[in-house]
Write a structure and sequence with these properties.
mainly alpha, 0% strand, disordered N terminus
């Protein structure tokens, strides 16, 4: 009886061992996917450049821009010869832009334009370059360096790709950029006018008239030019009258001094016969 029981036990153990070996064999044949499915994990598949890029794009759409940049950077660095690497470069730039990191975005877009001058996405990158500066523009009473850079980039795009849809978009924004620059010049000119620095004010107003016509400032600019020129003439007339008075005063003084000179000379000259007696020594 005991021998029969022992035999059955050994048989069961053998069967369990065989089943375990079979499971191990199946697992090794199917890779890790089977094991991961047991634990509820996603099957681990070798990542393709396109799949990796898609992961980055999904993070971008969710607003996870830092994660998107990390993944796009992997695509660019690990698959530099794959065409998807170019899209990853733009993905990095776009992620910086949407995260309002405009300085980093500017570097990324500019790098794309310089490294891939014939790529069909260059007009888009150039437009975004202008927009990086556009979003950094200051109010009219502040420094306008970013505004000047935005103007430069939009004009460069329009000159290089005049038929591009991005050139049309740039032209629309360029008008706003120029208007900001014109208002800045007018702000400074008006300040000079109020402080009676009319020559400096006139230069600003004439600059607006020359470079920023038809932007809504023509009427008041022309009016200030007329008023400023009038003030300059009035100042010139006032200075001329003051100079004339000063000259007349100088001449009157010289004439007065000329009349006094003979009288003083007469007083100092002794009259003959009226000399005082000279004392003689004893």
């Amino acid at each position: 009886m005991k021998t029969e029981t022992i035999g059955k036990t050994m048989t069961n153990r053998s069967r369990l061992l065989a089943a375990a070996l079979l499971l191990v064999l199946l697992a090794s044949m199917s890779g890790c996917a089977w094991w991961d499915s047991i634990w509820g994990k996603e099957p681990r598949v070798r990542q393709t450049p396109e799949g990796l890029y898609q992961r980055g794009f999904e993070q971008y759409k969710k607003g996870e821009y830092k994660k998107a940049i990390e993944i796009f950077t992997r695509v660019r660095d690990e698959y530099p010869l794959n065409p998807i690497a170019l899209m990853a470069e733009l993905g990095i730039a776009d992620s910086y832009f949407e995260n309002e990191q405009y300085v980093d975005a500017e570097v990324a877009y500019n790098s794309f334009v310089e490294l891939h001058p014939t790529n069909p996405n260059v007009p888009y990158a150039m437009f975004q370059l202008g927009m990086c500066h556009y979003h950094q523009m200051q109010t009219i009473d502040r420094d306008q360096t970013a505004t000047q850079k935005a103007r430069k980039e939009f004009e460069r795009l329009m000159a290089r790709f005049p038929q591009s849809k991005f050139a049309i978009m740039a032209e629309k924004n360029l008008r706003e950029v120029k208007q900001r620059l014109a208002e800045h010049e007018f702000y400074i000119g008006e300040f000079y006018y109020r402080t009676k620095k009319y020559e400096a004010a006139l230069k600003r107003f004439e600059l607006i008239q020359r470079e920023y016509a038809n932007l809504g400032l023509d009427y008041k600019t022309n009016r200030f030019i007329e008023e400023t020129k009038l003030r300059i003439r009035e100042d010139a007339d006032r200075k001329a009258r003051a100079a004339q008075k000063a000259e007349e005063a100088r001449k009157a003084k010289e004439a007065k001094d000329a009349k006094k000179a003979p009288q003083k000379a007469t007083e100092k000259t002794p009259v003959p016969g009226n000399s005082p007696p000279q004392q003689t020594g004893k």
